[in-house]
Amino acid sequence: MTAATGSPPEAGLASSVTELSGAGGLAGAVRVTDPEQITARLTDRSGTPPRGMPAAVVLATSTAQVQAVLREAAARGTPVVTRGAGTGLAGGAVATEGCIVLDVSGMNAITALSPADEVADVEPGVLNARLDQAAAAHGLSYAPDPASAAIATIGGNIATNAGGLRCAKYGVTRDSVLGLEVVLADGTLLRTGRRSVKGVAGYDLTALFVGSEGTLGVIVGATLRLRPLPAATATLAACFDDLAAAARGAAAITAARVQPAVAELLDRAALTAVRAAFGDFYGADAGALLLVQTDGLAADLEAAAIERALRPLARSVYRAQGAAEAQALFAARRQALPALERIGQPLIEDIAVPRSQLARAAEAVAAIGAAHGVPIATIAHAADGNLHPLIVVDGSPGRAAAAEQAAGEIFALALELGGTVTGEHGVGLLKRRWLERELGPGSLALQRQIKRVFDPAGLLNPGKAL
Strand locations in 72-175, DSSP E? Predict the structure, then answer.
C-alpha cells in the first residue's frame, strides 16, 4: 500500500481527537491514536492509495455511537468514510483528507435468527461466512457467497451489493435484503423494509441503499432472508484448452436449460498462480477450468445433463466424489486472488456482459492483455456473464501505465457488448470516470439529486461512486 503524504498520523489526529472529546464525546466510540491501527484503515483491498490523512479514526460498537459520530460530523462539516473489513476492490473505503474514518466492524452481533420465518437480523460487522454457519445450524443458508466470504462483512456486502459464487441461482446481496437500519447524514436513524418476504408499500428505499457504497447513509442493521440448505449437491470440474472454449461450455449449459447454483471459470494464468502458491489440484494444468455445482433434490439429474452438454466441448469432465472433494475443487477458485497477490498488485476489474457475449469478451480481454504486454488472469462467474480480469502490476517499467490503458479498453469492451463496468464490486474511486459513459448524463444527474436528498452537505463518502 502506498502511504499518504503529509504529517504523520499522530500529528494530524491529536488536535481533532481533543476537539471531538471537548464537544461532548461520541457516546463511547473509541478514537484510534495508534499509527499502525490508523494506517490499517486508510485503504481497502484494491490497494488504492488514500486521498489524504483523516482527521480521526473512530471505532463504533453501537448504533448510538454511529449517530453521535454523524451528528458531530454534520455539525462540523466533516466528511465521513465508513468501512468494515476493508475487503472492497474498488477503492470505496479509501480515506480522504480531513475525514472521519468510521469503522463499524466491531458491530458484529447476530441479533436474531428465526428459523420459522427464515430471517436473520444482523449488525454490519458480522462476517458473511459466520452468518452462513449460524444459519446452517438450523438447516438454512445465507445465499450470497463472495469469494472473500470468510473475511468480508455483511455491511460491506450490502454497501457494494456484492455477488459471489452462488449468485448464479440465488441472486446477489440485494435479493437477500428485506430491511435495513440506516443512520443518515444528520444522525437520524431510519428503518426501511420489513421482516416479511413480500411487501410493496412505498418506494423501495431498502434497494436504494443496497449498493450505495456509503454515500447515502451508514448501515447499522439488516434483516436478511435465509434459504433452506439444499438436500443434495453435485459438483463437476471440466478442463478446456482455453478460456474462450470454457465460456462456450458455459453457454452450452444455458442452452441445455439447466440452472446451476455455481458456475465458475479460471483461465490458465489464474490456475498457474494458484498451483504455484498452494500446490497441485485437479485441472491445474488446463487451459481453463470450469467448476459447476447443482443443488436441490434434482442435483444429480441436473449434473448429468450438464455433463452431457460439456463433454463434446471439454478436454475432460470430472465429478467430485463427496463434499470434501467438492470443497477442494472450489478452493482453487477462492485462492485465485491471494495467489495473484503474491506475484504483484492486481488491478482487479469487474465487468459483466450478456451471457451470450461471454466467449467474445474472454477472447477480447486476452487480446487486450497481449496488445499492451500486461499479464491478465481472468476468473469469472460464468453463469451470469461476470468476468474479473486481474491485471497484475509487478513493478516492471511502464507496467502501471500499460495496465491503466488495458483496463480502459476492457471497460469500453464491456459497454460495447451491452454490459457494465462493474457487476458486483462497485464504482468506488476506480471507475467513476466511466460511470457517465454507462449511465448517460440524464441518469447520472438524477442520481446526484437523490444523493443530495439524503446527504445535502455531501459529507458521506465524498468523491466515491457518483
Answer: 80-83, 100-103, 110-114, 119-122, 140-141
